[in-house]
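Hey, can you fold this one?
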Amino acid sequence: MNLISALILESRNEEAVKVVAEFSKLQRTYLETNNKDQISLQEELNFLGIYLKLQQRRFDINNRFEYKIEIETTEDISNISVPPLILQPIAENAIKHGIIGSTSSEKWIHVDISSDEKNMIINIEDNGDFKKTNFDLGMGQKLVHQRIEIYNKINRKKLSVVSGLHPRFSNTGYRVELKIPIGGKL
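Sure. Predicted structure:
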């Protein structure tokens, strides 16, 4: 909402209209998925893409970042089930604790989806200036763990999340890995 207000105050009305449409799409998707036990990984990635696009616009001046969602699997992600809204809090933490305040001239968030024989593996990482010693992920991480716990109980699955991994694509930053058993299909 702050972004929309700022765009209007700066008389960037066409851009404000685009942001309102994107925000509306994000809210509609949230309302459609929030009360479901599970959604497809494709739906979750669509939501994440809309969220990251809005955040990218929000931080366009001082904390500009690029993002990439890369799918490197032959599995049909529209048939893989996940708890709804599981990736957004992880991406939000990447922005809040990695991108904002980073001294890097090229800031980015990389989401990659791959698979092995047993699991779909989702990595979300940033190249920020993360410092483990003075950091608590707080509410976002708690919500992710709660959603996974509930999902696992209801669906008798073994989704898991590991935070604080060393990034694969940079020397700085933070990586979170989510593993979904491939047997977890819709």
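The helical segments are 2-9, 13-33, 41-58, 88-99, 139-155. Let me know if you want another pass with a different chain boundary.
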